[in-house]
Design brief:
Pfam families: Usp (PF00582). The chain is an alpha/beta fold and 317 residues long. The chain has 2 domains: 5-160, 3-Layer(aba) Sandwich (Rossmann fold), CATH 3.40.50.620; 173-313, Rossmann fold (3-Layer(aba) Sandwich), CATH 3.40.50. Helix content is 38%, strand content 22%. The protein has a 10-stranded mixed sheet, sandwiched between helices. Helix 5 (144-149) links the parallel strand 4 (126-130) and strand 5 (157-160).
């Protein structure tokens, strides 16, 4: 794994009721700074913050604005740089882990496109995104920008639930969850195993069995469901064993365990497992074409919505 890990923090631009920049940081921004600090306590990172502004005017109008536009851009760049520096300091990211160009402010018609271009320019290994403010505490809700990136980003995405509490010791365990969209030993699992090995923490391989997500059962359907559930469990245990063997072949000194989470709905299945403040969840992407990019299917999105811990989504290959 490349060291240091190059981390791009997506910061939300904050405005007051007059449409002018606010001096206060939002809960979403606090969360991504805490996520970055959590990673910084785990490994050597190189961090840069980016604040985006969705331009309400067409590009052709910029030349007409002339010096006013450039002055506006310079003022906001300085304003959001100060907010980024304050966020990094207060969350505990050491100055030695800041990039030389620690903060950038960019504007354009599409936030997801701006973030993708900025990640490429920075050669980022990870883009950190906070949850939408409407999410329940401890859960992640994708904003329109996050949703677009979850179906297009060429760079892994780090998602942090709203108001989540993270371990002061950094990441203490890496988790990888299989879905129906996963292969036995796909690239997402390889990434997760490499992270765990590099950070010298255990790896837990997971699968979930959510109950009650189909139509209301009859007595006959319950019998069929019980039989299918038993067969599914046997197949899943065999898959988890193969995955564990594959990981240990590449990382013989790694501590690897596996578990199945079963419960009512996705929330119940995920909450059936014990989660710690030092847990990081990794997920793979559903391959859709020849491009390497993040693309999440319906099961992966359900896990993202219900995960109580930060999540990294890897592109498919």
């Amino acid at each position: 794994m490349k060291q240091p890990l190059r981390v791009l923090i997506s910061c939300r631009s904050e405005e007051n009721s007059n449409g002018k920049p606010s001096g206060k940081r939002s809960e979403q921004n606090d969360a991504v700074f805490e996520f970055a600090a959590w990673l910084a306590r785990t490994s050597d990172i190189n961090v840069r913050g980016i604040t985006t502004f969705i331009r309400p005017w067409p590009s052709a109008s910029i030349s007409k604005l002339g010096g006013k536009y450039h002055k506006w851009l310079k003022n906001l760049d300085s304003h959001y740089r100060n907010i980024t520096l304050k966020g990094l300091k207060e969350s505990g990211v050491e100055k030695s882990q800041w990039d030389d160009k620690v903060s950038v402010f960019v504007d354009g018609p599409s936030e997801s496109t701006l973030l993708t271009h900025a990640a490429k320019e920075f050669d980022a290994d990870l883009i950190l995104l906070g949850s939408d403010a409407a999410a329940p505490k401890g859960r992640f809700l994708a904003s329109s920008t996050a949703d677009a990136l979850l179906h297009s980003s060429p760079v892994p995405l780090g998602l942090v639930p709203r108001g989540v509490k993270l371990s002061k010791k950094g990441v203490t365990r890496v988790n990888y969850a299989f879905t129906n969209e996963s292969d036995d030993f796909d690239q997402g699992l390889r990434y997760a195993a490499e992270l765990a090995s590099t950070w010298n923490v255990p790896l837990r391989i997971l699968s979930f069995s959510p109950e009650g997500i189909t139509s209301a059962p009859t007595s006959r359907s319950l019998d069929i469901s019980t039989k299918l559930s038993s067969e599914w469990r046997e197949l899943t245990l065999a898959m988890l064993d193969r995955a564990r063997d594959g990981v240990l072949k590449d990382h013989p000194d790694l501590s690897v365990s596996s578990e199945i989470g079963s419960g009512w709905g996705w929330n119940g299945a995920i909450d059936a497992l014990k989660w710690k403040k030092g847990d990081l969840l990794c997920l793979g992407s559903h391959p859709t074409d020849a491009l390497s990019r993040v693309f999440v299917g319906s099961e992966t999105m359900e896990i993202i919505r219900n995960s109580p811990v930060p999540t990294i989504i890897y592109p498919s290959l």
